[in-house]
Amino acid sequence: MVRDDIVDLMVSTFEVAPDDIRDDAGLEELGLDSMAQVELADRVGATLGLDIPEEEFTGNSTLGDIVEAVQRRQERQKEARSS
């Protein structure tokens, strides 16, 4: 699952406490500064085989926002392969 992959990366790479991770938690609230947010976007993209713009992971994005954005990208990629 997308959410699980992102949470695993946040815990293993950025040492975010699993108990602190909620869908409505902002990345900054979880301790990820702008550089860490860019790195998270890169790692999620590499893990899931997607090209993810950094803008989707920066600012006031919450975990829920990011999960939805990644799932939309996966759907678009799947549709593109089917065409």
Helix content: 55-70%
What portion of residues belong to β-strands?
under 5%
**Ranges with pLDDT <50 over ≥5 residues?**
none
Number of strands: 0
- Based on CA atoms alone, the radius of gyration comes out at 12 Å
The computed structural class is mainly alpha
Shape descriptor reads: elongated
N-to-C SSE string, H for helix and E for strand:
HHH
Structure description:
The chain is mostly helical and 83 residues long. It has three helices and no strands. It is elongated and about 40 Å long. The two termini are 24 Å apart. The model has no long low-confidence stretch (mean pLDDT 91).
Outline of the structure:
This protein is mainly alpha-helical.
How would you describe this structure in keywords?
single chain, 83 residues, mainly alpha, elongated
Set out the fold topology.
Elements: H1 2-14, H2 34-48, H3 63-82
Helix pairs in contact: 1-2
